[in-house]
């Protein structure tokens, strides 16, 4: 069985790491490069850096940040935000990113997923999906959660896989920043509906929440932000606890 991955997420706004609740009320959490280096030293398996306003503000990619990150890290990292084209991805690749995450652009033009997979390989393409439960079903949202669509979550992740995505990063907007646990039921539905890895995001507050998302939620990786940024749960302690609970993790 493949080891489950622990992935700190650094949401970037104006060059700083920020964290909010349900995608709003952001507060500063520090320098992204310094935090990334710290998590690398602590045993994080990967890192995700997302410019949460790049698409909304029509800004381009994070090449300078990617170069700075690559100089200070020895673990894989994914970077996303405002990616619209093959050229955007080439810049990030050349700057040191291991994978890229696309979200709104992929929903608006699903062919982009195919183009990226064909050009760079599926293993490089992470499709990030922000979804909110509304009226009993889960619907995809765009532009950092600002724009609702009528696209159902399960329909979209299946299409993303069929078009060549190598991984799905699913964030529950209902659970984001609330620290009350991951959206395990829908995460399990996502994981069992596709064959590519699923990263669960939104809701981490305790070490047991990670146990639950790996067992009940069937996630391949768990992503969290504030509990790491504000030193609430150290990564080495989390990994030791997961192993004690029978979850296979690396670097314990």
Outline the secondary-structure elements.
Layout: E1 5-13, E2 16-21, E3 24-30, H1 32-42, E4 47-51, H2 63-72, E5 77-80, H3 86-94, E6 99-102, H4 104-108, H5 111-120, E7 125-134, E8 137-142, E9 147-152, H6 153-162, E10 167-172, H7 184-193, E11 198-201, H8 207-215, E12 221-224, H9 226-229, H10 235-244
Parallel strand pairs: 1-4, 1-12, 4-5, 5-6, 6-7, 7-10, 10-11, 11-12
Antiparallel strand pairs: 1-2, 2-3, 7-8, 8-9
Helix pairs in contact: 1-2
The helix-and-strand class reads alpha/beta
Counting copies of identical and different chains, the oligomeric state is single chain
Output the number of helix runs. Answer: 10
The average pLDDT score comes to 89
Please estimate the helix content: 25-40%
Low-confidence stretches: none
Separation of termini? 16 Å
Order of helices and strands: EEEHEHEHEHHEEEHEHEHEHH
What amount of the residues lies in strands? 25-35%
Number of strands: 12
Q: Order the strands across the largest sheet as they lie in space.
A: 1-4-5-6-7-10-11-12
């Amino acid at each position: 069985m493949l080891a489950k991955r622990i992935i700190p997420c650094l949401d970037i706004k104006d060059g700083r790491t920020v964290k909010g609740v349900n995608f709003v009320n952001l507060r500063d959490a520090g320098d992204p490069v310094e935090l990334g280096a710290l998590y690398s030293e602590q045993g994080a398996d990967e890192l995700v850096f997302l410019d949460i306003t790049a698409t909304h503000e029509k800004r381009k990619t994070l090449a300078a940040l990617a170069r700075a990150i690559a100089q200070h890290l020895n673990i894989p990292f994914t970077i996303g935000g405002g990616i619209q084209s093959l050229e955007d991805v080439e810049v990030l690749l050349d700057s040191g990113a291991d994978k890229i995450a696309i979200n709104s652009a992929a929903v608006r033009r699903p062919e982009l997923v195919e183009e990226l997979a064909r050009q760079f390989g599926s293993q490089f393409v992470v499709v990030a999906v922000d979804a909110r439960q509304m009226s009993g079903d889960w619907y995809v949202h765009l532009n950092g959660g600002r724009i609702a669509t009528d696209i159902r979550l399960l329909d979209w992740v299946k299409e993303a896989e069929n078009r060549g995505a190598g991984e799905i990063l699913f964030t529950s907007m209902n659970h984001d920043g609330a620290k009350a646990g991951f959206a395990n039921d829908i995460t399990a539905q996502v994981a069992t509906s596709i064959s590519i890895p699923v990263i669960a995001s939104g809701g981490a507050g305790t070490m047991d929440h990670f146990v639950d998302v790996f067992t009940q939620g069937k996630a391949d990786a768990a992503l969290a932000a504030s509990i790491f940024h504000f030193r609430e749960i150290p990564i080495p302690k989390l990994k030791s606890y997961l192993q004690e609970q029978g979850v296979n993790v690396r670097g314990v």
